[in-house]
Predict the 3D structure of the following.
Amino acid sequence: MDDSSSSHQLPIVTHLFEPIKLKKLPHLTHYISNLQPLPNPLDHNPYFNTLHLQNFYITPNDVVLSHATRFAYRTAGPRNNVYFNPPEVRVAIVTCGGLCPGLNTVIRELVVGLWNLYGNREIFGITGGYRGFYSTEPVPLNPSIVHYWHNKGGTLLQTSRGGFDLCKIVDAIQNRGFNQVYIIGGDGTMRGAVKIFNEIRQRKLNIAVVGIPKTVDNDIGIIDRSFGFQTAVEMAQQAISAAHVEAESAVNGIGLVKLMGRSTGHIALHATLSSRDVDCCLIPELDFYLEGKGGLFEFLDQRLKENGHAVLVVAEGAGQDIIPRTDSQKEERDESGNLVFLDVGVWLKSELKRWWDREHPGELFTVKYIDPTYMIRAVHANATDNLYCTLLAHSAIHGVMGGYTGFVAGPINGNYAYIPLEDVACANNPVNTKDHNWSWVRSVTNQPDFLKS
Ligand SMILES: Nc1ncnc2c1ncn2[C@@H]1O[C@H](COP(=O)(O)OP(=O)(O)OP(=O)(O)O)[C@@H](O)[C@H]1O
Ligand SMILES: O=P(O)(O)OC[C@H]1O[C@](O)(CO)[C@@H](O)[C@@H]1O
Ligand SMILES: [Mg+2]
């Protein structure tokens, strides 16, 4: 072995043996001193505790390792002891932000799990997102009310953006006597949940807060993926397939599909890989350009010459830097403070037409633009996502009953774990355009790398 190869290998070996630290998880006993552990009511639940106590409970030695963060996280699941007496439990469940397939399944499974596993009876839905804590009456929930909810898209508790008033929310939680708060939402919601948790801890209240990450865009980090994402990818296939048919049936036809994905292109990427009909996939993580050598137009020109048609998939957040904006458009925000995007699909369609008329005057050319927007997320979850939502909800319940707070339940390498809320709230999940996955996309589409030489 020569010197150069050994110097290459050394850092990798060292990396493998780096010590992995256990992530500390907030627990109610950290700031409430007189809290006593109780036997877990699951001891007497013949339907769930089928192992009859042998290896049934998760111990402090059970951890899940994350390659990405190089931390060990506590394994999700029931604990030997609980820190809530079921007759004293009062639960609030809220959904915030945009819709996502599976929201109703998570709510349903929280209600059914809290009721059937632990015998909790005081369960309430907060309607219309964060503002619902202080502006509407909580709605009582029980298993018979929610029994069909997993078959419905959207959230039957309703949702909204904006309306985050920390003081009013925590006052309402306290005044209404809630001691378990389940918050389902995306990155913004998780940032709000961190603030609620910190305020509750500051006030030394015996109230557990848990986040259940929801994002159809799959833009939350640390966890493997977010629920509803796979359903959305599946729904996107119909739009791509229609775009392909339209493009193929026209002379010099282009099928253009815009898919959701504000800051990440996971839906576009996965829909592209699974469809195989896509010639070019544009995502927010990839800068692209239209004109000149190596640009989009040159690539499409070639594709039309070779195949007579082309399919283009674009994530809604792609190209936002190169679409011209007026000063007022630069400032426009939604109720939560997110920048309002311009329609990249409409812009691309008009740029494509302009380019073709200039370069090929008089020749036939068609762009069929399909924007399925809400159709990919306003549906109920598919079977895989439904299963996932159930495991998420039950994991959250076990953690809260075990006294953990300020955490998120989610899968890491396929194993369910508890992760500090704060870590999840600041972990985003961009598509890595420098990894093998992206090489795979390029090998499927043969699209340019858009690196100007
Ligand atoms: N930094 C923040 N601090 C406190 N609250 C926040 C913060 N960011 C967002 N929120 C609140 O969280 C809720 C949801 O935020 P947002 O509309 O950004 O959706 P989200 O949770 O990111 O979901 P998604 O983007 O996937 O639809 C809103 O009520 C918003 O006011
Ligand atoms: O129109 P709304 O409800 O604000 O939601 C649109 C946004 O929600 C998301 O689906 C995230 O939930 C984004 O992809 C999209 O930009
Ligand atoms: Mg968001």
About this structure: The first strand starts at residue 21 and ends at 22.
